[in-house]
Amino acid sequence: MSKIHFNGISKAKDAVKPKGNWSQGLVASMNDPDLVVDQDSVTITIKDKYPKAKHHFLIMSKENIPGIMSLNKENLKLLHHMKSVADKLCSKFDDKFKIGYHSVPSMQRLHLHVISDDFVSPCLKTKVHWNSFTTTFFMTSDDLIRAIDDTGSISKMSKQVHKELINTPLKCHKCNFVPKTMPNLKEHLLSHIK
């Protein structure tokens, strides 16, 4: 399989552009040596191209599994392995991490977020970004594994619940501070960094 590299591509009209929908971007990122952190026979770990915290990694299945809605009990071994890879990665840092999946992923290819809970990043810009990691829209790895083990699949989140979670009013995830805007929240988050 040939490698596709997108870093450093000029914006000239003859520049090579990735084919397909933007939601397929993770597949291209899997082949970018500047993003790859680690890999084994079944997973590849990359740095998120648009990190929403100081540390933000994605652990992806090398098997072409579109997302959490495609999972069943046959995938439990893979899910436990991905969680183990995440735990090992987190042990390399002093930071606290959240490990989980978006209930309605925007990108294709099963991927586990491993994100430090500081949420200090210039790429964290919107309420949608914030709420996708700080509400129940973000399903922990353990909860996803438990659901697959119990029922054999993940129930699709209703559009109404999705909308409510993404539009939840801003609130600090570490204290009771309720900011008026994302810039207020981002400034406040700095007060939690030691």
Keywords:
194 residues; alpha+beta; 6 helices; 6 strands; disordered N terminus
CATH class: Alpha Beta
Spatial arrangement of strands, main beta sheet: 1-2-3-5-4-6
Extended strand count: 6
Please name the CATH architecture.
Answer: 2-Layer Sandwich
- What proportion strand? 15-25%
Give me the CATH fold name. Answer: HIT family, subunit A
Helix content: 25-40%
| Whole-number total of structural domains | 1
Q: Major beta sheet, specifics?
A: 6 strands, antiparallel
Mean pLDDT: 88
CATH superfamily membership: HIT-like
Counting helices, strands and paired strands, the structural category is alpha+beta
SSE order? HEEEHEEHEHHH
Query: What characteristic shape results from the CA principal axes?
Result: globular
Q: Which stretches are poorly predicted, pLDDT < 50 over at least 5 residues?
A: 1-19
Q: Work out the helix count.
A: 6
**Cα-atom Rg, whole angstroms?**
17 Å
In short:
28% of the residues lie in helices and 15% in strands. It has 6 helices and 6 strands.
Description:
- The protein has 194 residues and is α+β, with helices and mostly antiparallel strands.
- It has one domain: 2-Layer Sandwich (HIT family, subunit A).
- 28% of the residues lie in helices and 15% in strands.
- The protein contains six helices and six strands, in the order H-E-E-E-H-E-E-H-E-H-H-H.
- It has a six-stranded antiparallel sheet.
- Helix 2 packs antiparallel against helix 4.
- The N terminus is likely disordered.
Helix-strand blueprint:
Layout: H1 25-29, E1 36-39, E2 43-47, E3 56-61, H2 76-90, E4 97-102, E5 111-116, H3 127-134, E6 138-140, H4 141-151, H5 159-166, H6 182-189
Antiparallel strand pairs: 1-2, 2-3, 3-5, 4-5, 4-6
Helix pairs in contact: 2-4
